[in-house]
């Protein structure tokens, strides 16, 4: 009944992929994987499923700290630029008004604070997510295209410390997935 | 009419939406994805789209001609002169940037307030914001005597050894609009990434290799992994939080272009809130102007329901009163100040040469929107559409009036004058509208006009039946 797997044939695998019909069954499967000691299991869904990343074992997100730093840098740099230009590099005396007229430096400072924070947040999100990454072994699995439509996938990757081909397959089979596929590396 | 859910893969334990005000019954994950992706991928746009596209293209051509002629001859081809040196260009700028406010407001503020009716209208409202703000940015540049030197407003080390004048609202404007454009673009694009991945996969399944490649490149390899989604949501929420004060700041700074000057009618502390309220007012009017034809053209009545239109109508009613408060406050301050120039300017608006514009503006912006007190009106699609057009016109008249009525009566009667738009003024105005329509037509053809990922989330929420 069972076909010869790639491991048995001596070929490299990325991991095992199981398909589920809805978010709840994916969450249950992720919990089960976690209970079996998997820390690198990957869950794929067509929309964000609340709490799923915590079940899988979160890695720290740098998005918020990056936004804070980006905003602070953007604001400080813009204020400094205005102060430097208006006070040091090109001072103009207009009717005795102060050179360091800080209230009129606020609008540009405010805008670039926002811009710095927004750019940093987006870049942190992309970089930490490893995007852009136009090719991924999972794209080799034909059914995986449904992960962006209506199906939910759990992948037990071979690089997980507790991964062993036989037990991993048994674990996933026990979860009654709609489909179980081996992902070539 | 809107198509009923088409999917046949029932019985797989997949949830379906229950009938709610924001999403009609019977839609599953696959249905909403296929319905929205299908609009783009089916490529069936028919003669209506093509005729609209041709008309818009003709308008864009006219705009290009007008701009080329402007670059060749200078701003003298417009009706601007002393004393009215700011004419249509500045009025159009303020009008467009105002329209560009509702998109970010819907996306950001309604997200933070967890308003579910945001879901199906945020994507095209954001596109509207981007296009309107880009067009708005063109006008001050074209209005410069030598538009090709517009980059002198950017602070960069240059051989002229000068810096921008940091105390000038025009420099603030540059930072505000550039930031607004960039942040709106990022907000829009980040929200699009999961949908681009859906389009990539749908196109692949249909064997459309070119589309698969194009959407695949834009999707950056998005796979929808749980940790990716968590960071994505965090970034999206942060962008919403950042965009909210940004929306308020942009039209505030635009209003300071006027309020910082000592011209009667400009020099008013109510300007920032009054401009922001006017921006939301005109922006929501434009959302309705776009949403009503869109849902009819693509059969999206199940997604953009009567509730969406009625909620937008309520926002219109509320902002109409805020704008009305602005008008009243201006009048009160003019008389209370005892300043004869302010008083004269106010009376001149009522009975002077531009009085017809003033009274038409009041009719469109204050009187007509009062019909929205009736529930039946808020749920009548044709009336809402006509009203949204009237408000768009009314808000344009408001911008025109602010710019022109204060300038045409200078402090000295010897410097009084009139502004009469030339044919180039009109061609540039209508050309810019055509350009907006043209960009929007391309957008609905090439990108999903409703967020598929958020619609799937909505399916899950409504299927649970939690309210």
* Average predicted confidence as pLDDT of chain A: 87
As a percent range, the share of strand residues of chain B is under 5%
Q: What structural class should be given to the helix and strand makeup of chain B?
A: mainly alpha
Helical amount among residues of chain B, as a percent range? 55-70%
Q: What's the total number of strands of chain B?
A: 0
The gyration radius over C-alpha positions of chain B equals 24 Å
How many domains is the backbone of chain A divided into?
Answer: 2
Taken as a percent bin, the fraction of beta residues of chain A is 5-15%
Question: Order of SSEs of chain A, N→C?
Answer: EHEHHHEHE
User: Can you tell me the residue ranges of chain A where pLDDT is under 50 for at least 5 consecutive residues?
Assistant: none
Secondary structure category of chain A? alpha+beta
The level 1 CATH classification of chain B is Mainly Alpha
Q: How is the biggest beta sheet of chain B arranged?
A: none
Helices of chain A, by number, come to 5
Mean pLDDT of chain B: 89
What is the CATH T-level topology of chain B? Formate dehydrogenase/DMSO reductase fold
Shape of chain A: rod-shaped
Stretches of chain B where pLDDT is under 50 for at least 5 consecutive residues are 1-11
Outline of chain B: globular
How many strand units of chain A? 4
Distance between the termini of chain B: 27 Å
């Amino acid at each position: 009944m069972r076909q010869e797997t790639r491991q048995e044939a001596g070929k490299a695998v990325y991991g095992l992929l199981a398909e589920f019909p809805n978010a709840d069954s994916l969450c249950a499967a992720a919990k089960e994987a976690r209970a079996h000691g998997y820390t690198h299991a990957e869950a794929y869904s067509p929309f964000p499923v609340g709490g799923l990343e915590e079940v899988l074992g979160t890695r720290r997100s740098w998005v918020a700290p990056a936004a804070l730093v980006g905003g602070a840098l953007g604001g400080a740099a813009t204020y400094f630029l205005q102060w430097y230009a208006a006070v040091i590099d090109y001072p103009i005396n207009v009717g005795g008004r102060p050179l360091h007229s800080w209230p009129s430096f606020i609008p540009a400072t405010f805008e670039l604070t926002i811009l710095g924070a927004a750019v940093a947040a987006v870049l942190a999100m992309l970089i930490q997510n490893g995007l852009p990454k136009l090719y991924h072994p999972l794209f080799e699995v034909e059914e995986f295209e449904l992960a962006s439509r209506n199906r939910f996938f759990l992948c037990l990757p071979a690089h997980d410390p507790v991964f062993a081909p036989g037990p991993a397959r048994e674990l996933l089979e026990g979860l009654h997935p709609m489909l179980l596929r081996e992902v070539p590396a | 009419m809107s198509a009923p859910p088409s999917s046949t893969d029932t019985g797989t334990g997949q949830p379906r939406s229950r009938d709610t005000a924001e999403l009609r019954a019977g839609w599953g994950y696959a249905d909403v994805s296929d319905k929205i992706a299908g609009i783009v991928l089916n490529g069936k746009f028919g003669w209506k789209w093509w005729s609209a596209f041709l008309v818009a293209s003709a308008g864009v051509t006219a705009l290009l001609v007008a701009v080329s002629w402007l670059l060749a001859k200078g701003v003298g081809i417009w009706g601007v002169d002393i004393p009215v040196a700011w004419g249509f260009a500045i009025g159009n700028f303020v009008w467009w940037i105002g329209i560009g406010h509702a998109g970010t407001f819907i996306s950001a503020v309604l997200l933070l307030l967890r308003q579910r009716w945001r879901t199906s209208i945020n994507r095209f409202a954001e596109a509207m914001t981007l296009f309107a703000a880009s067009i708005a940015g063109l006008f001050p540049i074209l209005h410069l005597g030598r538009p090709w030197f517009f980059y002198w407003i950017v602070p960069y080390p240059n051989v002229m050894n000068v810096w921008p004048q940091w105390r000038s609202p025009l420099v603030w404007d540059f930072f505000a609009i550039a930031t607004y454009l960039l942040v709106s673009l990022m907000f829009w694009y980040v929200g699009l990434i999961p949908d681009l991945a859906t389009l990539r996969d749908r196109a692949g399944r249909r064997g459309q290799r070119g589309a698969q490649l194009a959407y695949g490149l834009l999707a950056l390899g998005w796979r929808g992994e749980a940790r990716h989604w968590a960071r994505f949501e965090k970034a999206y929420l942060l962008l919403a939080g950042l965009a909210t004060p940004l929306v308020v700041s942009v039209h505030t700074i635009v209003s300071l272009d006027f309020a910082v000057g000592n011209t009667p009618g400009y020099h008013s502390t109510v300007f920032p809130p009054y401009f922001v309220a006017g921006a939301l007012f005109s922006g929501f009017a434009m959302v309705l102007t776009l949403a009503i034809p869109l849902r009819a053209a693509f059969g999206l009545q199940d997604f953009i329901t009567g509730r969406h239109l009625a909620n937008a109508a309520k926002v219109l009613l509320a902002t109409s009163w805020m704008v009305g408060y602005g008008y009243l406050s201006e009048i009160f301050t003019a008389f209370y100040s005892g300043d004869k120039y302010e008083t004269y300017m106010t009376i001149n608006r009522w009975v002077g040469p531009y009085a017809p514009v003033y009274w038409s503006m009041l009719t469109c912006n204050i009187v007509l929107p009062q019909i929205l007190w009736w529930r039946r009106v808020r749920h009548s699609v044709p009336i809402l559409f006509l009203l949204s057009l009237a408000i768009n016109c009314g808000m344009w008249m408001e911008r025109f009036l602010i710019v022109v009525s204060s300038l045409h009566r200078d402090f000295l009667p010897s410097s009084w004058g009139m502004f009469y738009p030339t044919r180039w003024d009109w061609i540039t105005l209508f050309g810019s509208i055509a350009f907006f329509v043209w960009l929007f037509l391309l957008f609905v053809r090439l990108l999903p006009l409703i967020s598929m990922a958020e619609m799937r989330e909505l399916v899950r929420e409504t299927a649970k039946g939690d309210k």
